[in-house]
Request: fold
Amino acid sequence: MQPYVWWWILAAVLVGVELTSGTFYLLVYGIAAAAAGVAAWLGASFLVQLLVAGVVAMLGTLALRHWKRDTGHPEASVQDMDIGQTVQVESWQDGRGQVKYRGALWDAEAESAAVDSAQPLVIRAVRGNILVLGN
Reply:
């Protein structure tokens, strides 16, 4: 079998595995393998094929890291929108309880021992699916 066929098989496998991971890194390496396959198909030596794969993989990885760093994290902004909102206490005991917020019951805990559940409680932070509350 010709070397370019091996490169394209490797590219197909990497892209196929990428479909299950969702990180985009294997997609970059699949594109690098496909580029090396094109170089092999054009008659380049094995060393040139490896250089093409390496350069494309390196540039793609750097571009992907730059893109991921610049892409906002929407889950953080959603949590930021919750901070400062008032909640309604459903049950509360020893600094933990359940509160009603956005039409659902949430687990909650006090940010400190000084929090008074008789006063209006405000979301100070979100830790996973637990609201951290304060006065």
Q: What stands out?
A: Residues 120 and 135 are 6 Å apart (CA to CA). The longest strand covers residues 86-93.
